[in-house]
Amino acid sequence: MLKRGRIGKKAQAEKIFMYAVALIIVGMILLFGYKAIAKLTKTSESATMAKFKNEIRNKIDIGSAYGRISTEDFETAVKYKSICFIAERDAKNLNKEFMGDYPLAADVAESEDNAFLYDGQTIEPFKVDPFEVDENSADAYGPDAICIPIVNGRFSLRLEGLGDRTLISS
């Protein structure tokens, strides 16, 4: 009877060890899987943003053909609230109301970038071809800048070709 009790305890210890090893393996698989999915999601977001930037650059470039007038629809990530274009390259001369609404715009104006997406807290700057702002547009901050609201990830731009640049309005 003694032997039988020892074998039972040994078998129980082996089962506990097997469960512990299985639990560790499952935990590692979940951890590595989560990291892989997070990396894939980030890569996908980067690719989508690059595609968006190329599309808007191309539309503004094509829109510069003299006399060409078009309204272009764009789609971007839902998290963004507005897209802004800054014509004034000196942050000290930017419209005061614009600077109040978009305090991070000074960083863009002082860089080589001239447009940015705004999500309410941060900006995603990028550069587009030469343009002018239609200061009579409802969303313009004088001739300095224009910020078009993004609703559910969608917005429209009116582009008018001036030959060597594009007039942007909402």
Main sheet, how many strands, which sense, barrel? 5 strands, antiparallel
Q: Into how many domains do the coordinates divide?
A: 1
Secondary structure category: alpha+beta
Q: Quick check: average pLDDT?
A: 85
**First-residue to last-residue Cα separation:** 90 Å
Lateral strand order in the biggest sheet: 4-3-2-7-6
Which stretches are low in confidence, meaning pLDDT under 50 for 5 or more residues running? none
Strand content: 15-25%
Order of helices and strands: HEEHHEEEEEEE
Description:
The protein is 43% helix and 25% strand. The longest helix has 62 residues, at 2-63. The protein is built from three helices and nine strands. The chain has one domain (44-169). It has a five-stranded antiparallel β-sheet with strand order 4-3-2-7-6. It has 170 residues and is an alpha+beta fold.
Strands, helices and their partners?
Elements: H1 2-63, E1 69-75, E2 82-86, H2 96-101, H3 105-109, E3 115-118, E4 123-126, E5 131-133, E6 140-141, E7 145-149, E8 154-161, E9 166-169
Parallel strand pairs: 5-9
Antiparallel strand pairs: 1-8, 2-3, 2-7, 3-4, 6-7, 8-9
Provide a concise account of the structure shown.
This protein has 170 residues and is an alpha+beta fold. It has one domain.
Could you name the key traits of this structure?
alpha+beta, elongated, 4-stranded mixed sheet, 5-stranded antiparallel sheet, 25% strand, 9 strands, 43% helix, 170 residues
